[in-house]
Amino acid sequence: MLANGYSQAQMERALKSLKLPFSQDALQDALALIEEKLSFYKTQPLKEDWFAIFIDGYWAKLRTREGKLRDITLFVAVGIDLDGNKEILGFWVQLGKEKKSFWVEVFQDLVNRGVCRVLVFVTDDFQGIHEVIGKLFPYADHQLCHLHLRRNPRRELSGKAYKEAGGLLYKLRRADDPEEGEALFRALCEVVKEEKPDWAGKLLAKADCFLAFLRYPEEVRKHIYTTNVVESVNAGIEQMRLELGGYFPSQRCLEVNLFIQVVNLQDRWWRRPLPTVRSVSYKLRQLFTLRYELAEEHMSLHNV
């Protein structure tokens, strides 16, 4: 009942209808336990090294203390380590639109909790996020989500152009190497340019971020060209929202709901590492060494 935003009066009525006793002490004990565990979860240390970190947003409405409904975005970060284990690293609530200062707070939180070295971040094209990643994680790749890239042409292009663009995107995700991917992406931009030249220019300027996944072993590419790994979390949030009447009655209710979902998901995930990532763990560690340890040694020698 706490997770679903029940007031104390609603709890008393519900328990009475079930012929169960209500205890104020038990309620306070439950609240204290949840808040203690939630506080620890938000500040617990994280691993230093990660193969990929995914960040995606879920848009919803939240009732404020003043009783008004406000637009919020709930961002969730999920990491996959070098052995294929998935972990929900954290969540952050943003009132209104995201901006650069918000991303500084998010990534600073990850850094403060121990995240040091990441091979690739996978996100949507959120405002300001690319610049923050570049400054705080200069050795990391930034992959922009192909799922969102696939959805946009449907709204922006004619039927014929959309079909052609969709075919090129399909081939791009199955390209053998970065060179083939670059050729296909240029062809995609040419198709877009015929109807939306400004958008084509923006896409071309971000080509490196749409093609980063091709620098990794073929076995794991399907995991890192979209933010789909976060979708199981977002699906649970959507179910919570619907059960609560279409909005979250308070931020505490939102966080309690999400925390319970995180615990349940994490318990399942830890028992099932991603087999495709685990199978190429050695290759990923080689990439990691080249990217970080050897590069850092080279910089140290250069500075000397």
Topology:
Layout: H1 8-17, H2 24-43, E1 49-63, E2 69-80, E3 86-95, H3 100-112, E4 117-123, H4 129-136, E5 141-144, H5 146-156, H6 159-173, H7 178-195, H8 197-205, H9 207-211, H10 218-224, H11 231-243, H12 251-270, H13 275-279, H14 281-303
Parallel strand pairs: 1-4, 4-5
Antiparallel strand pairs: 1-2, 2-3
Helix pairs in contact: 3-4, 5-6, 6-7, 7-8, 11-12
What does this entry look like structurally?
There is one protein chain. Helix content is 58%, strand content 16%. By secondary structure, it is an alpha/beta fold. The chain has a 5-stranded mixed β-sheet with strand order 3-2-1-4-5, with helices on both faces. β1 (49-63) and β2 form a beta hairpin. α6 packs antiparallel against α7. It is globular. The mean pLDDT is 88.
List keywords for this structure.
alpha/beta; five-stranded mixed sheet; 5 strands; globular
Number of helices: 14
Please provide the count of β strands: 5
Shape: globular
Unreliable spans: none
SSE string:
HHEEEHEHEHHHHHHHHHH
Query: What is the helix fraction of residues, given as a range?
Result: 55-70%
Distance between the termini: 62 Å
Overall mean pLDDT: 88
Structural class, please? Answer: alpha/beta
Approximate strand percentage = 15-25%
Largest sheet: 5 strands, mixed
Radius of gyration: 22 Å
- The neighbouring-strand order within the major sheet is 3-2-1-4-5
What's a concise summary of this model?
It contains 14 helices and 5 strands. The chain has 304 residues and is α/β, with parallel strands linked by helices.
